[in-house]
Amino acid sequence: MGRELQKKKNKSSTMKPKRRKPKSKKVTIDNPIVREHWDKKLTVSQNFRKLGLAQNLNNTAGGSEKFLDGTTASVDKLSTIRRKLATTMEPAQAQIVRDPKTGAIIQIIEPEGNSNPLNDPLNELSDSEMSEFDGFAHIPEQTSQHPVISQLEEAARHGVKQTRKQSEREQEWCQRLVEKHGDNYKAMFMDRKLNPMQQTIGDIRKRIDKWQKEGRAVEV
């Protein structure tokens, strides 16, 4: 009998290469608004970009500034600070006023003008120029949004809140607690047999109140 098993092993032939079509993961879209505007001919990234949605929230934002007229201005990092800050302070002149009796320094009179010992490139701006700063007024306000995003926001504002339904096991657990301890929630919390996961008193009260409002209260 052992010989027959060996013969079966010898009959194994070389496997012929088979070409299989690569498996493509089917994209399931639960949201009806996104499903309506989804283009099956485009990739997931292309569809998200078309709908104005973010595919990956971990990507660094920025890189280009888009205006309403369609023009794009690239963002130059540290464009306002191009000069290297000095690591040492340059020598400057000042008038020192000393006490004639003790010789202690009473006052240091600096020369007129904006002192800039650290070579701060922004120090050249006068106070009047700084006061005229209008924030980001040069950036146009966003007056219109993507239609898909507007529909999603509208659906979120008028969405129906779904209430969680208690499972049969949770209902049975609440009933057993009420049958044993009545309305003593502290005893329910201390019951290691019925409350092995140590649910808090507030959590137990919330679950039992919901169970009683649904008409499943029991007479103790």
From TrEMBL:
Pfam families: Nop16. It is found in: Nucleus, Nucleolus. Keywords: Nucleus, Ribonucleoprotein. One of its GO terms (biological process) is ribosomal large subunit biogenesis. Residues 1-31 are annotated as: Disordered. GO terms for cellular component: nucleolus; ribonucleoprotein complex. The keyword Isomerase does not apply. Residues 8-26 have a biased composition (Basic residues). Involved in the biogenesis of the 60S ribosomal subunit. Belongs to the NOP16 family. Component of the pre-66S ribosomal particle. This is Nucleolar protein 16. The lineage of its organism: Eukaryota, Fungi, Dikarya, Ascomycota, Pezizomycotina.
